[in-house]
């Protein structure tokens, strides 16, 4: 298979080539939707944010700087839109914490796989937002430390600290619920 | 820090930190530290066994989280949004980038005005060559696309 670079596809998509547009969507929308879903814990909102992210991408394509990495830029836009939504949620519901306990899930022997997954997703979405972002990017999506730090506009050291705290907190939460 | 063979050295504390941060999979560690961490873990496995076991349990749980599928409706919307946005923002190339965006509409307006002025300016010559005012009027109306000046006059009377 011939190597196709992001820049080739971006140039063609900017000129209105439908196959290049589809290529970019197929390559990057799963990651963006995955990130927004984990961050927001709400599928509908996550899809809205994904759509807004790509709208911004389409507008940015004609003036695209070849030095910039499309994937990093796209995830950063999505992440910042998530932060905005989470901030508005906090402002509209001051003091209210995300729902973390579900009595139906407590007996470990009755935990079905789907319930475990739901418990993990809930626990990730309940992490402080930057910890959730670090964990999602590195542990769930396989971004390198460098990429994840660039997406989050932070240093690799700070990313590492967020990641360590996220894993510690997640382990404690899941242990309480007998998920891990 | 590096040893005499110029290989990076990673302390045991740092390896524990790497395990707690990135999990049990060494390939997830920062590239520069992977080799040294793997060697040290092979040399003294007992030192890291507990940390690795705890990390592995969490890794197993995280591996249960499925990838998110993009529904066809969303995919179609993302694609449908693109061409319009891309075309409206398409970069201009060559000389056209220096021309203002209103130029095509301006050119059409100029053409229409030029035709109207041309018709009006040419009318006195037609009138001068005509024997009567009626003939001049007939020429003018014919130029403007009306078929039969006499019929129009009769209808008006």
From TrEMBL, chain A:
SUPFAM superfamilies: Sigma2 domain of RNA polymerase sigma factors, Sigma3 and sigma4 domains of RNA polymerase sigma factors. GO terms for biological process: DNA-templated transcription initiation. The keyword DNA-binding applies. Residues 24-90 form the RNA polymerase sigma-70 region domain. Keywords: DNA-binding, Sigma factor, Transcription, Transcription regulation. Residues 119-170 form the RNA polymerase sigma factor 70 region 4 type domain. Signal peptide: none annotated. GO terms for molecular function: DNA binding; sigma factor activity. It comes from the Bacteria. Pfam families: Sigma70_r2, Sigma70_r4_2. PROSITE patterns: SIGMA70_ECF (PS01063). Transmembrane segments: none annotated. InterPro entries: RNA_pol_sigma-70-like (IPR039425), RNA_pol_sigma-70_dom (IPR014284), RNA_pol_sigma70_ECF_CS (IPR000838), RNA_pol_sigma70_r2 (IPR007627), RNA_pol_sigma70_r4_t2 (IPR013249), RNA_pol_sigma_r2 (IPR013325), RNA_pol_sigma_r3/r4-like (IPR013324), WH-like_DNA-bd_sf (IPR036388). The keyword Glycosyltransferase does not apply. Belongs to the sigma-70 factor family. ECF subfamily. This is RNA polymerase sigma factor.
UniProtKB/TrEMBL annotation, chain B:
This is Uncharacterized protein. It comes from Hyphomonas jannaschiana VP2.
């Amino acid at each position: 298979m011939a190597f196709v670079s992001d820049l080739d596809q971006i140039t063609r998509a900017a000129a209105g080539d439908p196959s290049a547009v589809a290529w970019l969507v197929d390559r990057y929308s799963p990651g963006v939707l995955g990130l927004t879903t984990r961050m927001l814990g709400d599928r509908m909102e996550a899809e809205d944010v994904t759509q807004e992210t790509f709208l911004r991408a389409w507008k940015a394509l004609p003036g695209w700087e070849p030095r910039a990495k499309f994937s990093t830029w796209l995830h950063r836009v999505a992440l910042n839109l998530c932060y905005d939504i989470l901030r508005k949620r906090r402002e509209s519901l001051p003091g209210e914490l995300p729902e973390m306990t579900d009595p139906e899930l407590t007996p470990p022997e009755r935990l079905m796989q789907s319930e475990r997954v739901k418990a993990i997703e809930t626990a990730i979405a309940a992490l402080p937002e930057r910890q959730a972002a670090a964990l999602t990017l590195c542990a769930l999506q396989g971004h390198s430390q460098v990429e994840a730090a660039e997406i989050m506009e932070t240093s690799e050291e700070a990313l590492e600290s967020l990641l360590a705290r996220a894993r510690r907190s997640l382990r404690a939460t899941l242990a309480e619920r007998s998920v891990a | 820090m590096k040893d005499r063979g110029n290989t990076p050295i990673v302390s045991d504390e740092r390896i524990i930190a790497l395990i707690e941060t990135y999990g049990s999979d060494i390939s997830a560690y920062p590239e520069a530290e992977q080799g040294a961490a793997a060697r040290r873990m092979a040399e003294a496995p007992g030192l890291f066994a507990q940390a690795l076991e705890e990390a592995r349990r969490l890794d197993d749980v995280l591996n249960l989280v499925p990838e998110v599928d993009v529904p066809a409706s969303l995919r179609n919307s993302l694609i449908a949004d693109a061409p319009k946005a891309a075309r409206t923002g398409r970069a201009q190339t060559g000389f056209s980038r220096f021309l203002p965006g209103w130029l095509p509409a301006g050119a059409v307006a100029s053409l229409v005005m030029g035709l109207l002025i041309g018709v009006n300016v040419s009318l006195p010559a037609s009138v001068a060559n005509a024997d009567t005012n009626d003939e001049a009027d007939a020429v003018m109306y014919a130029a403007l696309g009306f078929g039969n000046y006499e019929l129009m006059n009769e209808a008006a009377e």
